[in-house]
């Protein structure tokens, strides 16, 4: 069983580059299932139904979200009954924070949760909520997308769940970390998968806007960066031997 997880899809550059690269990813890595985080797919703010359909048509099975889940109000019109899960602890009463899908004769539990550190301390406590789902549901394999800012919170969650969850990714920082590994009790883990979108921006946004904001405190609205694109992902192999592999593609590579 192999599962490919695509890191945070940012705006049209991310959607288009992912769709272009899916045949290559399928051929090279032979995943059984593909999941993706798409909380920034609508120009950095949430997701629309049109984008959702595009991603489904491209062969994504499950979409996870994050702190920008509800930034595009269109989601409220179609989240119920969709293959989108939003963070279990975001306090919303629409959609769901986990789902179980069937693949051949296996059940795969997928959970999405939000961190608290440097995000929103008001978020409900993710550690206990995620563990409770893992302890009470019936499944063969489990996957967590922990959408959080601090690597410390993500690593703490990974050790807390080591041996309880089969696969855990961190998302949200848009920068791929170099700590992909098999934890001592069997959880496959990476602190952040990285993003799929513009390569030359600041985590997806036009760099000039963010640089000015740091220097002058100016608050121009964010715009999606242009230019070469990148894709970041991880491939989980669950059997016969467990392993996690980082994937990075970008248009500056030959
Ligand atoms: Fe985020």
Description of the structure:
The chain is 24% helix and 26% strand. The protein has one domain (2-199, 228-250): Purple Acid Phosphatase, chain A, domain 2. The protein is of the alpha/beta class and 254 residues long. The longest helix is centred in the N-terminal third of the chain and has 19 residues, at 11-29. It has helices at residues 11-29, 49-57, 126-136, 151-161, 207-216, and strands spanning 2-6, 33-37, 62-64, 84-85, 98-103, 106-114, 141-147, 167-171, 181-182, 188-190, 197-198, 229-237, 243-250. The protein is globular. Strand 12 and strand 13 (243-250) form a beta hairpin. The model has no long low-confidence stretch (mean pLDDT 97). The protein contains five helices and 13 strands. The chain binds fe (ii) ion (FE2). Fe (ii) ion binds at residues 39, 66-68, 147, 172.
Task: Tag the structure with descriptive keywords.
binds fe (ii) ion; Purple Acid Phosphatase, chain A, domain 2; globular; six-stranded mixed β-sheet; single chain; alpha/beta; 13 strands
Rounded average pLDDT: 97
* Strand proportion: 25-35%
Give the overall form: globular
CATH level 1 name? Alpha Beta
Count of DSSP-assigned helices: 5
Distance between the termini: 31 Å
Per CATH, the superfamily is: Metallo-dependent phosphatases
What is the H-and-E element order? EHEHEEEEHEHEEEEHEE
> In angstroms, what is the radius of gyration?
17 Å
Largest sheet: 7 strands, mixed
Number of strands: 13
Task: Determine the fraction of residues in helical runs and give it as a percent range.
Answer: 10-25%
Q: Are there runs of 5+ residues with pLDDT below 50, and where?
A: none
Kindly report the oligomeric state of this protein: single chain
Structural class: alpha/beta
Heterogens:
fe (ii) ion
For the record, the count of structural domains works out to 1
**CATH fold descriptor:** Purple Acid Phosphatase, chain A, domain 2
**CATH level-two architecture:** 4-Layer Sandwich
């Amino acid at each position: 069983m192999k599962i490919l997880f695509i890191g945070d899809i940012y705006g049209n550059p991310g959607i288009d580059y992912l769709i272009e690269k899916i045949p290559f990813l399928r051929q090279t890595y032979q995943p059984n299932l593909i999941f993706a985080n798409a909380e920034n797919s609508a120009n950095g703010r949430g997701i629309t139904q049109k984008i959702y359909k595009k991603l489904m048509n491209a062969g994504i099975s499950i979409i996870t979200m994050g702190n920008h889940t509800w930034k595009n109000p269109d989601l409220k019109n179609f989240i119920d009954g969709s293959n989108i899960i939003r963070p279990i602890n975001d306090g919303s009463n629409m959609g769901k924070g986990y789902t179980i899908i069937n693949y051949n004769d296996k059940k795969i539990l997928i959970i999405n949760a939000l961190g608290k550190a440097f995000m929103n301390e008001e978020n409900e406590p993710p550690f206990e909520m995620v563990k409770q789902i893992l302890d009470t549901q019936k499944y063969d394999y489990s996957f967590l997308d922990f959408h959080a800012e601090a690597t410390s919170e993500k690593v703490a969650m990974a050790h807390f769940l080591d041996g309880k969850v089969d696969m855990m990714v961190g998302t949200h920082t848009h920068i791929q970390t170099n700590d992909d590994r098999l934890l001592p009790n069997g959880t496959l883990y990476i602190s952040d998968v990285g993003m799929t979108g513009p390569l030359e921006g600041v985590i997806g946004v036009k760099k000039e806007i963010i640089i000015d904001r740091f220097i002058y405190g100016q608050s121009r609205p964010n715009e999606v960066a242009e230019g070469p694109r990148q894709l970041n992902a991880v491939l989980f192999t669950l059997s016969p031997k467990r392993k996690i592999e980082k994937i990075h593609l970008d248009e500056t590579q030959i």
